[in-house]
Amino acid sequence: QVQLVESGGGSVQPGESLRLSCATSLTFFSIYPMAWYRQAPGKQRELVASIPKGDGYQTPNYVDSVKGRFTASKDNAKKTMYLQMNSLMPADTAVYYCYTEVNGRTYWGQGTQVTVSS
Question: What are the DSSP calls for 67-98, one per residue?
Fold first, then answer.
């Protein structure tokens, strides 16, 4: 059973930063694609950032609204993915989810709440 556990959410003011973590139980972490999604109240879940599978550095892809502000990364040795979020805005308020796909099955974490408000 694949387990994904997010942490690092919280309440911040506009312009501040947060770093989310996604710890996994994946045995061979580097061979699976990873992604961050978010879901704001009353909205559909949207893809925020994705990291292709592979050893070493893999270039992440971002939704336009977070380009230049968010940075996704992963540590294969720690089997953990990160999302560094800078210059946060109220529009970034959402529950953030970690995602992976293993042998055709999708897995989600429980989510971590990010609230940006003055």
Answer: TTTEEEEEETTTTEEEEEE-S--GGG-EEEEE
